[in-house]
Amino acid sequence: MRISQLLLGFPAALILSVLFGAYAVFFAVGLLTAVPNTADVAGPVTLDNYARFLFEPSYLAILWRTLWLSTLLAVLTAVLGYPVAYFIARTPSSFLRRFMLGALVVTMLAGSVSRAYSWLVILGNRGLINSFLLWTGLTDKTVPLVYNELGVSIALVHFLLPFFVLTVFGAIKNLPTSLEESARNLGAGRARVMAKIVIPLTFPAIAGGLAIVFSLAMSAFVFPLVLGGGRVRLLSNFIYDQVFVAFDRPFAAAVSLIFLVVALTALMLLTLLQNHTRRLAAGGFGGKGA
Amino acid sequence: MSDGVHLQDIGKDYDTVTAVDQVALDLPKGTLLTLLGPSGCGKTTVLRMIAGFVDPSRGKIVLDGTDVTRVPPEKRGTAMVFQNYALFPHMTVFDNVAFGLRLRRQKRAAIANKVKAALDLVHLADFAKRYPAELSGGQQQRAALARCLVIEPRVLLLDEPFGALDRHLRESMQTELRKLQQQLAITTVLVTHDQQEALALSDYVAVMNRGRVEQFGPPREVYDRPRSRFVADFMGVSNVLAGRVRVHGEGRIFEATGYGAFRLSENGTEGEGDALLALRPDALRLDPEGLPGVVHFSALTGAHYVCEVRLDAGGELTLNLPRSDPRSAPGSRINVSADPAEAVILPA
To answer: Where is the ABC transmembrane type-1 domain positioned along the sequence (chain A) (predicted)?
Structure first.
């Protein structure tokens, strides 16, 4: 019995050790130094790579910018996505529901690269939107929609929305409609039902969706690369440059590990928030109303 | 228009299906109406139309003299106890009951007093700080009731409120509800498929079938004088016999095919011709002059045995016999006649 249990645990242990082994490698390589003009790394063991990042303000600025933009995009995605999820969950037309869920899944599964270039076609200086604006005469010079944070943000929100909507949709669908009816019956208008009943009761799902979307935004690589055109410096692109441009793998590994720690801290804060949901939800939002 | 609930020929169509049609009911203030019928008869749709969750396709709904047909649910002043109670799981019992008062922007102290009074009324004073998940089924129902009563609604709506409770609890909750309703004189509409419940609780019963009201009246009238075969079946009349009404000597009789003749009461107004005879098990009795037959099945229901009798003429009847009567045993030969006062003639 005990041997068979050990055998069952073996594959899981193997997979986990490979996954977490990668992080251990990051840490270890980060302690070494690149040999100039080669792809090799060598000793001695030092914390210089970590110090180099943590004491350089221009590097830290990239980290904060990445965190800030990810937070902003996560919140924006939640604000845009929640009404969509609510609509899909509550529409009486099952055809509409299936159609919209299908569209979301297709969007989610479509490749990042192809989508990034599609956005380039739409948002570019000679793209659909600018061509249209010039044609109508609303502007006489192109509006810069790409190669800046705006372009990256538009494409990222599009990329993140399905993840958030699909996470929250289930929670709203599982909420009995009688709770909403009961609140209205007792005198609450639609907005108040949302604020006092629906949002508080689906808050765990909202927090979960935020965590997923925030992580994805933090680690986004293709969209900033293609739509940022090198002018939007986010951390994943910075790490990429260290590996493939500067050939400094130890530094890239060190930055990756710092990035990982910061991201996990942010997610832990979100989990704490989720755990306090019940108390937060108890009063609903917008005060006690009395 | 006077106080109370007035439904003026309301109807509801879904695409090609008519869920409710020509429902016209007038309920005086302070009384309790039961909408009674099988599932799918439209009774819940009527209740939801009164609450404002379903827009009627036709007709008008008037509450206490105000036409509310196009008024949104939050402004109707109705209060509904849902089948699953729909208590807000993230709020304590106190907050649940206070919900409607807070929306009405009442003073904090006034809210606390009213909530306490409402919880006292339903014997939940000690449970104010609990969450709904920490209450039993019966307690949840009382909390849902308190939440409705506290806002002093124009009409209290109850959607199969006792369906989820076990039998013993159901009966005591029914009594409690009826006492409260009478004490507070609150106009109430209750939906149920349980005819016992309808009889026990109501001032008026509306029996519904296929979206229409088949019969409306006080419970005794609906029980004693069903006007259609459907109502008779639904009110627990187990013997409905086909045949003819005929004048016979001084009075009238009903000749039932496969049974024989039953004497009818003197003051009946039905003319001669094809009809149905509805006989409750209580309306039948043992009578040496009656129709002969053999008991072929009997079951004890408590105070009496329900016996199925196969008459020599071929037909079958269900009647009640006292527990002590040895003739309730299967195989006994008995003679059966009907109490003319309790025999009801229905249109064929």
So the answer is: 63-270
* Residue A123 domain-assigned (yes or no): yes
Identity of the amino acid at A195: A
Dist. CA B215–CA B208, nearest whole Å: 7
Say yes or no: ipTM exceeds 0.90. no
Q: Which residues contact B90 (CB under 8 A, 6 or more apart)?
A: A200, A201, A278, A281, A282, A284, B131
Query: B203-227, pLDDT tens digit by residue?
Result: 999 999 999 999 999 999 999 889 9
pLDDT of B265-305, one tens digit each? 876 666 788 889 999 888 898 989 889 999 999 999 888 89
CB–CB contact B82 A182 (8 Å): yes
Mutate to test the interface with A, among B102, B106, B134, B157 (most CBs of A within 10 A): B102
Contact in structure between B18 and B211 (CB atoms under 8 Å)? yes
Rounded distance, CA A61 to CA A163, Å? Answer: 28
In chain B, residues with a C-beta closer than 8 Å to the C-beta of A288 are: 102
Low-confidence ranges of chain A (pLDDT < 70): 1, 277-290
Q: Provide the pLDDT for residue A284.
A: 45
Tell me which chain A residues have a C-beta less than 8 angstroms from the C-beta of B90. 200-201, 278, 281-282, 284
What are the tens digits of pLDDT across the range B35-87? 999 999 999 999 999 999 999 999 999 999 999 999 999 999 999 999 999 99
Q: Across the interface, which of B90, B98, B108 has its CB nearest the CB of A281? A: B90
Domains in chain A, number: 1
Domain with residue A73: its CATH number is: 1.10.3720.10
3-state secondary structure chain B: CCCCEEEEEEEEEECCEEEEEEEEEEECCCCEEEEECCCCCCHHHHHHHHHCCCCCCEEEEEECCEECCCCCHHHCCEEEECCCCCCCCCCCHHHHHHHHHHHCCCCHHHHHHHHHHHHHHCCCHHHCCCCHHHCCHHHHHHHHHHHHHCCCCCEEEEECCCCCCCHHHHHHHHHHHHHHHHHHCCCEEEEECCHHHHHHHCCEEEEEECCEEEEEECHHHHHHCCCCHHHHHHCCCCEEEEEEEEEECCEEEEEECCCEEEECCCCCCCCCEEEEEEECHHHEEEEEEEEEEEEEEEEECCCEEEEEEEECCCCEEEEEEECCCHHHCCCCEEEEEECHHHCEEEEC
- The residues of A whose Cβ lies within 8 A of any Cβ of B are 176, 178-179, 181-189, 192, 196-197, 200-201, 278, 281-284, 288-290
Q: To the nearest whole angstrom, how far is the Cα of A208 from the nearest Cα of chain B?
A: 18
| Mutate which: A90, A184, A186, vs B, most B CBs within 10 A | A186
Is B107 close to A290, i.e. CB distance below 8 A? yes
Which residues of A fall within a CB distance of 8 Å from B54? Answer: none
> Are A185 and B80 an interchain contact pair (Cβ–Cβ within 8 Å)?
yes
Q: Which residues of B touch A (CB under 8 A)?
A: 51-53, 72-75, 78-80, 82-84, 86, 88-92, 95, 98-108, 111, 147-148, 151
Report if residue A221 sits inside a domain. Answer: yes
Query: What range defines the domain where residue A113 resides?
Result: 57-289
Kindly state whether residue A20 falls inside one of the protein's structural domains: no
Residue A69 maps to a domain: yes
